[in-house]
Amino acid sequence: APRVKKQFDYSCAVCAVQLEIVEAAHIIPVNDQHSSDEVWNGLSLCPNHHTLFDARRFIIEPTLQIAVDDETITFLQESDRASGIELLTNFRGQKIRAPHFWEKSRELQGRMREALTYSRSLTGIAQAESNY
User: Fold this and answer.
1) Reduced to 3 states, what is the DSSP secondary structure of residue 82?
2) Residue 96 in contact with residue 14, Cβ under 8 Å?
3) Could you give the angle at the alpha carbon of 50 between the alpha carbons of 108 and 13, nearest 5°?
4) Which pLDDT band holds residue 54 (cuts at 50, 70, 90)?
5) pTM of the full predicted structure?
6) CA–CA separation, 52 vs 50, rounded Å?
C-alpha cells in the first residue's frame, strides 16, 4: 500500500484529494486468482472512489480514461437516490493521474494496462471512446 500511494503522490488518482485519507486499491480484486500485490495492480483512491471502484460503478480503461456505469446512474436518478452522483459523473471520460512509473517503465505500464483490461472484463460497463 505505501508503494502504491507514493506512485500517486499520496492523492486520489481520480479526484486528487490528499488529506491523508487515500487508500491503496487493487485493480484486479485481491480474491481473484490473477491478483497480485505488485505496484502495477494498484491505484491510490480516496475512500469514496475506492468503494465505487470496488463496486464496479466505474472502471479505468487501459488508456487511464474513466468509464462510468450508466445503468447505475440511471437507476439512482430514477429511484431518487442520486445525491452525490457527481462522484461518478464529474469524472466520466477524464483520465486519472498516472502513476510515476507510467512513463519510466514500459514493463510496469504494460502490466497495469493488462490488469485494467482484465478488470474491465469483470464488468458490464460500456467501453469509453479511446484510441487504445
Assistant:
1) coil
2) yes
3) 50
4) very high
5) 0.88
6) 6
